[in-house]
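Help: why these numbers?

___
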Amino acid sequence: MAYNRGAAILYAEKWWDSRNPAYPSFEVDCTNFISQCLHAGGLPMHGYPNRSKGWWMRTNSWSFSWSVAHSLKWYLDASDAAVRVWDVSELKQGDVICYDFEGDGRINHTTIVTAIRSGDPLVNAHTSDSRMRNWEYTDSSAYTPSIKYYFYTIS
């Protein structure tokens, strides 16, 4: 089944400032939210019950890649469902951006592209709930000049 970008974006727009009761909610909820968006777009889960393999969610259990930003990046890097691209201009609605705020190799945050305005992606996210925010996150208290971005197109 092909990834349905429209369905992923509709989900991101519906739940950007609230929590879907069908899923657990976390204090740091960004990656859980992005995983929900990807799943709403039809990305298939696999790897259950091994929490360190695949990408999946079950009632009270989930893979690390479902809820941990750094683990989701590892999953996307190894998955046939995503391709890392090197320029922000290659992103489309429904794609994912991972953020390493300190530039230390550890991913801190994930967002989903929900719109493209004047060539710049706008993103939705949880933790600090955001809608149609500029992808660069220069307005974030977590932003540093050392930030590194990782761009993924979802297929």
